[in-house]
Amino acid sequence: MSQIDTERQLAVLGGAPLTEQNVPLGQHNFPDWHAYEAAFRDIFNRQYYTNHGPLAQRLEASLAEYCGVRHAMCTTNAEIALVLAAQALGLRGKVVVSALGHAWTAQSLLWADCEPLFCDVDTATGGLDLGMLESILAEDRPVAILAMNAWGGADNAAALRELADRHGVALYFDSAQSLGARTNSRRLGGNGAMEVFSLHSENLLSGAEGGVICTDDDALAAHIRNIRSNYGMGNVIVPVVKTSNGRLSEAQAAVALHNLQRIDEYLARNRSLFDSYSAALRGVPGVMLWQPGDETAEPTHQNLLLRVDEAAFGLSAAELALALRAENISARTVPVWLRSPVYADAARRHCQDETQAERLAHSLVQLPLGARVSVRQAEAIGRAIAALQAQAGSVRAALRRG
Ligand SMILES: Cc1ncc(COP(=O)(O)O)c(C=O)c1O
Question: Single GO molecular-function term (predicted)?
Fold first, then answer.
């Protein structure tokens, strides 16, 4: 049962914030400074900043081994990687994406001259609603499914593969936030034609910035390498119409390589923070920690999502986020990009009315979990949430007064 801190006055009711310094969202894992300094000295000694240097090559080999795939190809960031993936698959036409998707997923399709087609989600898992997906595949004849593994979780790849194969469409994954997660006991990387990961610093494995495309397909890998940079430099040149400069620099590769060596430590810290939140919130009515994915998923806990039942908790997810921000705790609601005017046509077909994705998104609050959060802070945030629930009526009135 959570302990409610009765001594402390909540910030939204006029008390001092829970912490002086803001507690941020995101993983923000930094490698050991001395290791990074040595790696940087080597970069200077070699006088080699970029163009698929020795560190970028070593990172690709290490990531291929970690993800259990034949090829891992690093890029400037994950959005560029998603655009390259669509180009390498030769996609033309409609591509199914999740209605819960992040902005970049659908944006990558616009850059690749494809048309996103939103599919609703299963509110239990956050994965694509397989019934709706089946009818979209039959009626709208998309050329591919761009599925999403988000917030450190994993969608059921086997079920998606079966549907994609039966309808003869390509399947690839935006797994930007889920490097290190597993489904069916296998680490993500080899699902579908390709999986794309992000090395942005909010994610488990940071390269300061960066993206990774994983595949077991030799021809696709050759194609990606060719359009990624320098017109196939060092590789067999295959004919492509569009190329891009999507390289990863040696400095980024050094950060990612050193972070990769410590990934088990980061995973253990995430687990322990998750458990601390879980203990602190036990017994608080109307909130539960929510992990995307079904029973086959082993998440990395890189993002902590709290699912709020407004009737039982007394505040909506958006109100809870506001009240926590007053405490100097970064708390974010989940934006629904599908309602952006850019996607009006894409949403019209299947997602005209309020979707399950929106209902799910509107019930979620993302809380800090990462290198800049201590176990004591996680416990204190849990107690603050319990106190907000206990005084929900006054908190709501205070928020309404502004
Ligand atoms: C689901 C998803 N896809 C793509 C991206 C884009 O990643 P990047 O910032 O590396 O371009 C992000 C970024 O967080 C993401 O969350």
Answer: transaminase activity
CA of 79 from ligand 1 middle (Å) equals 6
What are the sequence ranges of the domains in the chain? Answer: 11-27+262-400, 33-258
Dist. CA 100 → ligand 1 center (Å): 13
Asked whether 253 and 354 are in contact (CB, 8 A), the reply is: no
CATH number of the 33-258 domain: 3.40.640.10
Cα dihedral 375, 381, 383, 387, rounded to 10, equals: 180
Q: Is 94 in the pocket of ligand 1 (CB under 6 A)?
A: no
| Cα distance from N-terminal residue to C-terminal residue, the chain | 32
CA-CA distance, 362 to 343, in Å (whole number)?
19
**Helices and strands in the chain: count of H runs, count of E runs:** 15, 14
Residue 235 has pLDDT above 60, yes or no: no
200 Cβ closer than 6 Å to some ligand 1 atom: yes
* Residue in 297, 306, 333 with CA at minimum distance from that of residue 127: 297
pLDDT at 3 over 60: no
| Ligand 1 proximity of 198 Cβ (cutoff 6 Å) | yes
| 370 burial level (CB within 10 Å; 0-12, 13-18, 19+) | buried
Task: Check pLDDT > 90 for residue 8.
Answer: no
CA of 313 to the centre of ligand 1 (A): 31
* 111: confidence class by pLDDT, cuts 50, 70, 90: very high
State if residue 105 touches ligand 1 by the CB under 6 angstroms criterion: yes
- Ligand 1 touching residue 174 (CB < 6 A): yes
Mean per-residue pLDDT, 57-69: 98
Give the residue-averaged pLDDT of 117-135.
95
Looking at the domain 11-27+262-400, which fold is it?
Aspartate Aminotransferase, domain 1 (3.90.1150)
